[in-house]
Amino acid sequence: MKTKLFTLILLLGSVVAFAQNSTAQQAASAEDEAAIKKVVEAGTTAAYAKDIPAYKNQWANAPYISRINAGTEGKVTKIVGEEFQKAYEDWEKNGKPIDIKVSRDNWLIRVNGNSAFVVFDQHNQNPDGTTRESVEERYMERINNKWKIVSMTILPKK
Fold it and tell me: Is 31 a residue whose pLDDT tops 80?
């Protein structure tokens, strides 16, 4: 009898905990979703245009920002914090604007207070007609009521 009572209490506790967790994990509001997508779009547009000030404006000004990129040849690069700041400077000196058409679909946006986890598929079409497909992730934080990118991961889609 004690075992059945303990099991019932444990089950009820689990149901209550699950219900509270489900309520806390609400879907992103339409306003947050639109703002987050706008930041992702602005970041990509600025990157390909080599507009470094506009690109930096989409990112948090924090020592923990990061970018991880896996190239199609299997090489993975990671830049974090101060390395990221130096990459901006190098890119500004040496990079060239690129004319690429970009589209995205299969968005998953999960907002939790002042942070958001974002996943989507990105489709790039180069001027020569070649394409690159990727699965991308952004971790974002709401800073002074504006969404900013904190971390970016880019993986080639096979």
Answer: yes
